[in-house]
Amino acid sequence: AGFGRGDVVVYCTGVFHCVVHRVVDAGGGFVVAKGDYNPAPDPPMPLSEVKYRVVASIPLEVWLPALLLFLSSAFIPFWDLRRLLEPFNLEASLFVFFILIYVVFTAVYVVRQPPFKTVLSAPTVELKGYDLSGDYRSLTLKYTLLNTSFTGVESCSIVGERFNTACPRAVIQGGEVTVTIPGSVYEELYSEGLNYFYVNMTLRLDKGVLIGYYPIHFTLERPFVAIVNHTLIVNNTLPAPLRGVSVNLTYVNETWMGLTHIIESRETYLNVSVPPLSEFKLDLCGPQTYVYVVVSYKYSGEEVVWAGRDYGCNQTRA
Fold first, then answer.
1. Rounded to 5 degrees, what angle do the CA atoms 191, 278, 286 make?
2. In the chain, how many domains are there?
3. Are 105 and 72 in a shared domain?
4. pLDDT for 148-186, tens place per residue?
């Protein structure tokens, strides 16, 4: 084709319409060109529309003054100093001279100045994630900020299916907003069998206001019961109190009197409440042969029953 990427070509889309642009891509029978100061390339055109490739150019600063000087010589007798210095001719010559200077300056230094690119960067705020602290009492919302910054918290509330609670505290630190979550929120959610809530927040920015309504999900791990070293442990892994935990203890003593096997037992019943993220412990060590333990509690609306046996401190398991 005689030209390639980076070459300046002349292509014509009509008899009286031709364009001089630089080639940015060529192939498949088409050419894509673009003006050096244009923001976008021209539409693809067939190779047949490219008429010429520019191999050299004369700067405007050179040919325009020369052309104007040549044309003005038809009106101003530059070659005849005597006529040029006559009063009328001198006035006309000075007038034309200043006109020429104005035209050259406008064409060379004003018209040819490249356009100044003004980039308007719009403020952008994006929520990139959130973190709940280990005790579930602190929620950190993490934002990506571009060309803006937080200046304050206008309003903040924690919303559930049946409640709307004001945030006790909301603190801004750079691109993060830390919200304190009251324990009553989790207690209410657990009673409804829910593991999510919403944060409704309005934040002030230096360039506007951000209104966010964010769903926050968390895990309700099932509490577990175990006997470790003659100690009953009820571990509440929930961020809400575990109420109505039933502990039924049956202490059993086995003795032999001659050939007679005597079994004696007594029962003890406890109803306890385990605080959030804490443990209830009960020492099972005693003179009994063994103790039979039954623990029951409610989890996600269903009753969970756990049973175990612990042998007395001085007994060994058969």
1. 115
2. 4
3. yes
4. 999 999 999 999 988 999 999 999 999 999 999 999 999
